[in-house]
Amino acid sequence: MTLDERINYLTERATRLLARSFSRRAMLSRFGLMLTGAAVLPLLPVRRGALAATVQQTDDPTHCDYWKYCAIDGFLCACCGGSSHSCPPGTDQSPITWIGTCHNPFDGRDYLMSYNDCCGKTSCGSCTCNRNEGEKPMYRLSLNNDVNWCLANDNPNYHCSVSVVLGVAEKP
Ligand code: ABN
Question: How far apart are CA 145 and CA 130, in angstroms?
């Protein structure tokens, strides 16, 4: 028996065995169940907080992994002539912001953060940082970072983003 014939023979036997064990309806129902499972699996909730906690946090404000940047999206003002919490000269801080809660691994406490955009100059273009810890979809606008918060400023050009500590987040 050649290899081809042997493969044909084995495939035929396996198919016949399968056909004898399952009705067509049972096969279709199992197949449907598998498809449903594959579609639903990505929708299940994931403990993203636990994943985020495993990311190494630094205390260098020019790096995206600085702990205060846990929910920032934009260019870091610390790389654009400002600091982690103050806008570069010639730009104005947006009065409206998005907020987040960041865990400070150096003292073990959680902090309420305000992320303000600095406005009035064209994009800084340095140190892009996009971290979305606790970010919510657009319908929770104040918890979404994908918005140009300079739109309420006289000059709505977006330059960079800062992260300002508002206070310690107390556990109830
Ligand atoms: N809040 C930062 C930002 C600015 C412009 C566009 C998207 C995100």
Answer: 9
